[in-house]
TrEMBL record:
Transmembrane intervals: 33-50, 62-82, 94-111, 156-175, 181-202, 223-241, 253-271, 283-300, 328-348, 360-377, 389-414, 426-444, 456-478
Tagged with keyword Transmembrane helix: yes
A Pfam family assignment: PTR2
Protein name from the UniProt record: Peptide MFS transporter
Top-level taxon of origin: Bacteria
């Protein structure tokens, strides 16, 4: 281990933790500030008319674009992890990704119309994916094996994520409602710039281990990888400029791409001669949980699509004579996460071996998510901006409890079930399930009709419950396939 890495790991200058944790906390907080701040106003920017400051895109297409964008972010985490492992190392990938995020928000703030949307969302999606994939990995390098501060360090880091997610929609939403959309996007750019500045000043605190390239490509392979990337980028640009891919079918394209990549990943792992029979069985056990995860996120991620429209057109946002900005609703979930995540974690710790198995947690998460959508049904007759804010807050609380049942354990499960030769690929499959679900959230949202919402909420909520119950019925079979993994 290098001297700089040892110094970083023995550092206690940040509340007993390495000083580098403060830099990572900051850059992740500001990235989440910019990401959720922008996401809180993105849907309404796309479908608001020009006299409202928007682009006037069809509402269904606008929600499809938002879902496709979110799916691309999670797809980009897979790319970001590969770049770190093979080309740049986690720390440099994180740094360049943060720069790309800032450029994307600047493009959204300054470039007009669909040009700003295309350039801005592409940069933010790829940058956020790269940053998201590597920030956690760099936090891990700050602690030596067996360091008892590790879990507490990740908890502090996790708080940064939710703090940014809470503050971002508040400030960008206020800027949008009082001045205009481009100031809201501009605030997201400023937030990311602040995160990048403080991170740059503290890069020396991270140690050399954060910059290691675990499995570097050979020089000849690097040229090939760059060539493939250039060809793919050129193909994507050509498809967009020719009109083959556009707002009306973007969500479909992302769904098809993620499904294809996921199938390839599963086939490559399951047919490999590098895995044992028990490892192959565990990979098979992950398939129904992959499907449940995608179903869960196809509903959960509608906070940025259908819930945004609902907040705009169906929610009574009047607070003592003042209309609350639409995006402020996006700050409710982070508050609930901050409050309830420690409680749920403490419950699992208290229960120990008696806690529900991972498949059962997936069942609980999926069923609760379906029930959350059914909770919209009693408000279907409340009229324009007639639904009470407290009711939506209660529904979002159910969203949060469902998230805490499934989301934190998904990544852990993928590492538990992963064959030794395919650890990274299994983690990638978990992110791909989130990517698929997020893209589907946009695709499903295209069918939402604010004037006839009963069928939408009942059918989608009901399907999620059926998927959860089907998974419940399969638990004995899945547990056998998991070969002792709880």
């Amino acid at each position: 281990m290098s001297t700089s890495t040892e110094a970083a790991q023995h550092d206690t200058r940040f509340f007993g933790h390495p000083r580098g944790l403060a830099n990572l906390f900051g850059v992740e907080m500001w990235e989440r500030f910019s990401y959720y701040g922008m996401l809180g106003i993105l849907a309404i920017y796309l479908y608001y008319k020009a006299d409202q400051g928007g682009l006037g895109i069809d509402q269904g297409d606008a929600l499809g674009v938002v879902g496709a964008y979110g799916g691309t972010v999670y797809l980009a985490t897979v790319i970001g992890a590969w770049v770190a492992d093979r080309l740049l190392g986690s720390e440099r990938t994180l740094f360049y990704s943060a720069i790309l995020v800032m450029i994307g928000h600047i493009a959204l703030a300054l470039l007009p119309g669909l040009t700003g949307i295309g350039v801005g969302l592409a940069c933010v999606a790829i940058g956020s994916g790269g940053l998201k994939a590597n920030a956690t990995a760099v936090v891990g390098t700050l602690y030596a094996e067996g360091d008892e501060r590790r879990d507490a360090g990740f908890t502090i880091f996790y708080m940064g994520i939710n703090l940014g997610g809470f503050i971002g929609p508040l400030l960008t939403g206020l800027a949008q409602s009082e001045v205009g959309f481009h100031l809201g996007f501009g605030l997201a750019a400023i937030g990311m710039a602040l995160g990048l500045i403080q991170y740059t000043l503290g890069r020396k605190n991270l140690g050399e281990k954060a910059s290691e390239i675990p499995n570097p490509l050979q020089p000849s392979q690097r040229f090939m990888a760059i060539g493939v990337a250039v060809v793919i980028l050129a193909a994507v640009v050509a498809l967009i400029l020719s009109g083959v891919v556009g707002p009306s079918n973007l969500a479909d394209v992302v769904v098809y791409v993620v499904v294809a990549i996921s199938v390839v990943y599963f086939v490559v792992i399951l047919t490999s001669k590098k895995i044992t029979a028990d490892e192959r069985s565990r990979v098979f056990s992950f398939i129904p949980m992959y499907i449940a995860s995608a179903a869960f996120f196809s509903l959960y991620q509608q906070q940025s699509t259908v819930v945004s429209v609902y907040s705009d057109q169906r929610l009574d946002r009047n607070l003592f004579g003042w209309d609350m900005p639409v995006s402020w609703v996006n700050s409710i979930n982070p508050v609930f996460i901050i409050i309830f995540a420690p409680i749920v974690a403490a419950i699992w710790t208290k229960l120990g071996p008696k806690q529900p198995s991972t498949p059962m947690k997936f069942v609980l998460g999926t069923v609760l998510m379906g029930l959350a959508f059914l909770l919209f049904l009693p408000m279907t007759g409340t009229g324009v901006n007639g639904s009470p804010l407290i009711a939506l807050a209660g529904i979002l609380l159910v969203f949060t409890i469902a998230e805490l049942m499934l989301s934190p354990v998904g990544l852990s499960l993928s590492t538990k079930l992963a064959p030794k030769a395919f650890r990274t690929q299994m983690v990638a499959l978990n992110f791909l399930s989130v990517s698929l679900g997020t893209a589907l959230s946009g695709k499903l949202a295209e069918s939402y009709d604010v004037h006839d919402e009963g069928p939408y909420f009942s059918i989608i909520g009901g399907v999620a419950i059926v998927i959860g119950l089907a998974l419940l019925a399969l638990i004995p079979f899945i547990r056998r396939l998991m070969k002792g993994v709880h």
